[in-house]
Amino acid sequence: MAVIFDPLRGRVRPEASHPDAAIIDVLTKTYSDADWAVLTGAGMSTDSGVPDYRGPDSPPRNPMTIQTFLSHPDQRARYWARSWMGWPRIRSTQPNQAHLALAELSVGGIITQNVDGLHQAAAEAVAADRATEAGALAPSPVIDLHGSLDRVICLSNGHLFDRDWVQRRLSELNPDFAEAVGIDPIDVETAPDGDVELEDTAGFAVLDCPECGGLLKPDVVYFGDSVPAARVQAANRIADEAAGLVVLGSSLAVLSGLRFVRAAAKEGKPVVIVTDGPTRGDEFADFRSISRVADFVTTWARR
């Protein structure tokens, strides 16, 4: 499996540019919540039990690339075995305080690099709490920049399938696999992309598209793959219409996220970055917090 180059190598965590209270004054007094586009990364979901790739305590990880996935049936079996093992844990993950606090804010839109669906789950939870309130605001739009693990796509003809349905079919095809490898799916640690570290995947039966026989993969953007053009356009629309950009919990190591920061800085829009480690976009930040994301967003929502 390919080793992914770490573009953060050699970078160190910067100092905070301002106290959080001063940054939040800019967010809430100089501008309104609706003026901000928000870009989120894996640091939003760590408190929900979803690990990140590049946090201070993250172990080295070698995620699947699209080239590897397409290269051989054994590689696809390897991925699907690991994904099948990891899905129950991902399926049970719940939004944390950072997601819920952000859902309380009527920001201009959320562009997330995460594939866990927790922003949408948080919006549903907040909407349920507000159901009896007159004039409750609609949730902020969310763009899943890198796709979502709860969908599976056919690479031949674009057919979409519910991940739970695919999980059931894989379980039917591989009834003894978990026992054979000696792992309980609910107890394993998942990677940010929903799979688990599992060496022995020989013999795992892969499901093909029931409509056309094509290759199936989770509807997520693997390393080395491209974000679909329509999704990029929707994310660009949110960023272009915003007066500024807030980055929450992203190292900006991936160019698909960094480009929004570069574009905002080029246009003279304020850029706020909140994460406790270094990022690839620190030189573009007008306001930099090194606080925990949940603490920062909760304070923002209370203002």
TrEMBL record:
SUPFAM superfamilies for the chain: DHS-like NAD/FAD-binding domain
Domain Deacetylase sirtuin-type: 13-303
Residue ranges crossing the lipid bilayer per the database entry: none
GO molecular function: histone deacetylase activity, NAD-dependent; NAD+ binding
Keyword Transferase attached: yes
EC number(s) from the headed UniProt entry: 2.3.1.286
Classification via InterPro entries: DHS-like_NAD/FAD-binding_dom, NAD-dep_sirtuin_deacylases, Sirtuin, Sirtuin_cat_small_dom_sf, Ssirtuin_cat_dom
Key words of the record: NAD, Transferase
Domain of life: Bacteria
The UniProt record lists the keyword Chaperone: no
UniProt cross-references to PANTHER family, sorted A to Z: NAD-DEPENDENT PROTEIN DEACYLASE SIRTUIN-5, MITOCHONDRIAL-RELATED
UniProt protein name: protein acetyllysine N-acetyltransferase
Organism: Brevibacterium linens
